[in-house]
Amino acid sequence: MEYVPLGSTDMIVSEISLGAMQINCKPGFKGAEEGDEPMAIRAVQTAVAECGVNFIDTARWYHRSQEMIGKALAELDGGDEVMIATKVSPEPEEAKLLDQFEFCLDALRRDSVDLLQLHSATDPERRDPSLEVIQKLRDEGRCRYLGVTMGYGSRVPEQAMRCIRSGAYDAIQIHVNVLHPIFAREVLPAAKEAGMGTIAMNPQCGGYLAKRCPDPDRYDLSFLEGLGVADLHQAALKWLISLDCLDVAIPGSKRPEHIRANCSVSDGRYMSEEQMRRLEEELAGTIDTTDDWGWEP
Ligand SMILES: NC(=O)c1ccc[n+]([C@@H]2O[C@H](COP(=O)([O-])OP(=O)(O)OC[C@H]3O[C@@H](n4cnc5c(N)ncnc54)[C@H](OP(=O)(O)O)[C@@H]3O)[C@@H](O)[C@H]2O)c1
Questions:
Q1: What is the DSSP letter of 279?
Q2: Ligand 1 geometric centre to CA of 253 (Å)
Q3: Which superfamily is assigned to 13-213+246-269 in CATH?
């Protein structure tokens, strides 16, 4: 596993970290299966203890994900050193936002988190006090850094640029992957230029590669020979970590075997620009990406 600085923060994070939305134990929610608590705990422990992941992204609204992380890390030596990013959703009332945050800390079994993000905060000019509330939490030492997350949509580039220019956030988490590379062209480079940490949500295309790809063997990946890439999933992650403007990818999986395969992509080898372009071309137009990407509205 390679480790990289998250923007200008003092966090040195695993280049492939863990997105914990799939580790939620609510049957049906983002692919969670019934009775998967032991698998959820094993998934977190595999990522940290076996694969070297030292950064986990979760959220107030990922059902039992935070509880699973808290339990899993409590059983591991050094589990309390794993850096945690969580998210609270913007609220018109300060008390409600604080309730969300306290819920997160309780479930995670922590007194503070490393990165506190405003979840899907697509309108930087909204009138609610959410930003002031999380700034206060940072000043009180209850979180170390502040972030903002946003999915995709026609207004997201403009909204993201406003968040970046505001200077209020230390990191941005955005929907970017090989099927949806648009934010890698403008938004992420601007965030990087501003010294922000850059985090790719939905790096495996929100499950599209696994569930919608009609015939994974139809793609000729021989041009990636020498990069240790065995399939489309690993190719998608290699593409992401090869972006200069990206710090960390947070693939989501509840299966230890997928977590191992994902983490093994961080091995110090990267795609050339030509290889990246070729992979985009190989995939373009071949996968139906018109509806649910698995991101929260
Ligand atoms: N802020 C936001 O609004 C927002 C929105 C969406 C996501 N996120 C963050 O981004 C993280 C990742 O998002 P995500 O979970 O939608 O996207 P993802 O990593 O793009 O895709 C997850 C899906 O891909 C499958 N998968 C992962 N690795 C695989 C592999 N090696 N082989 C086959 N299938 C594989 C998973 O199934 P299995 O579980 O069966 O492996 C799951 O169905 C989330 O956990 C969350 O932290 C944030």
A1: H
A2: 6
A3: NADP-dependent oxidoreductase domain (3.20.20.100)
